[in-house]
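To assess whether the prediction recovers the assembly geometry, we first specified each molecular entity separately, as shown.
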Amino acid sequence: MKEQILIIEDDEAFRKTLTNLLKKEGYSVTGVSDGFQAIELAKKSLFELIIADVRLPKGMDGIEAVSIIKGIRPEIKVIVIIITGYTDENAPVRALRMGVDDYLYKPFKMEVFLHSVERNIKMYRLEEEKKEHLEMLEKMNEELNVAQHELIQSKKELEDYSKRLEQKVEERTKQLKETQSQLVQSAKMSTIGQLGSAVAHELNNPIGGILGYAQFILQKLSKPDVVPKDFKTCKQYIAYIEEEAKRCKSIVENLLSFSRKPLIALESVDIKQLIENTLSIIRHQLELQNIKLTTNYEPKLPSISGNVNQLQQVFTNIIINAQHAMPKGGKLNIRVSTKMKDGKKHLQISFKDTGCGIPKKNLEKVFEPFFTTKEDWQSIGLGLSITYQIIKELKGIITAQSKVGKETTFTITLPVSSS
Amino acid sequence: MKNKSKKICVLVVDDEDVMRNLFTDLLTERGYEVIAVKNGLEAVEKVKEINFAIAFIDVHMPLMNGVETLMTIKKIKPQTRIVMMDSFPNALIEEARREGAITCIHKPFEINEVTDIMEEIVEQKERI
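The predicted structure of the complete assembly is given in tokenized form:
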């Protein structure tokens, strides 16, 4: 909708000309002939543009009238175009003081008039737009401020939350660590519990011997009629005590090598020599049991890094197991050769027996601690698990293959020492 | 082989060498006749030949465990007193009691536990 225009012009014909001209342009035009009428109208309606002739009847000129009209709504902008004749000398100054947008001298061409109206309306619209934009910008700015404030709030809340979360995580981690160590402890306890009965059996027999003989000796030597023969007998008994105490010692050592990793000194080991030494001790009992022993050593075998006692324990364990697997005799072959693995040189030691074999389901468990298929309680099933640990610590591997009723092969692979 | 003189015969069944030696040394000195064997099979063979007043039997042994040994002996010579021995708490001991073991001693035991039992047997025999 186009703007509302008020024309204050007492020359009726002129007023009508201007009115029609502007109506043709689409404006809403109202025309009055004096200032008082204009003021009345202006009180009721809002006019964006007022075109006023300076010379008006009834004692109020155009400038006065416009001034008063402007005063009705002082905060609202009104475009003012003053029309005057050249004879009004003070008019321009007065108009300027009041605030006028354009000043037209009569006579003027209609194009000039129209141009002025359009130009001023255009500027007015631009101003209005500008005002709107400013308002909008202010509003947006306000909203942005609020949003920023909220953001800062949120950020702070997030930081607080994050801090609390960190604390909770710390607490929870602590709890979990405690639980974990409890579980480890429980597992250890459970293992120790399992160990317990096996250990009790293993240790209580030799301890029984020690206690029994100690008490017996004390009794004998406390009698009033002690004779030299008694001392001789007691000496024998004391030898038993010593033997049983040593037995306890080795049981405990075996136990500890399962549950703890002692620092073992490594040295350069000649495997062929070591195996031959081990065999020199057990060869005889193998023969007694009708076990035919054969050995194959590759020439110029390199040495490996290990501990002589531990490796001897390993070989003894495997050979004795083989012996137990062939109660009625059989064959045991020990073969040592070199092999490349992962681009490095390794020694491979295999023990093959023609014994009863190990069923597949047990083969997986054969290196587990306390796994034993032996009925007698002298075997608590730690031998192979200790063997496994020893080999693992030397950065080697041990594997078992078997055919039930036919043969079993244990193969140890150890890295050759780099020196 | 029958009992010589009036010596009380004691059977010891245990796969542990030191245990057999201990019983033998201890009780022989006190005037008992001690026969010590390694397992239940050997024990049963001896029981067939000799009348033992008492047998000390270890619960855990290879080939035949202590309870099986007890039951077999009871079938052959029911009057034989049986004392079970163990080295840790286990269910077989309960079973042994049910099957007629008079008592149980736990390794490591004090020697007077054994000698007290023997003295009781002597007293019982003297009362008869």
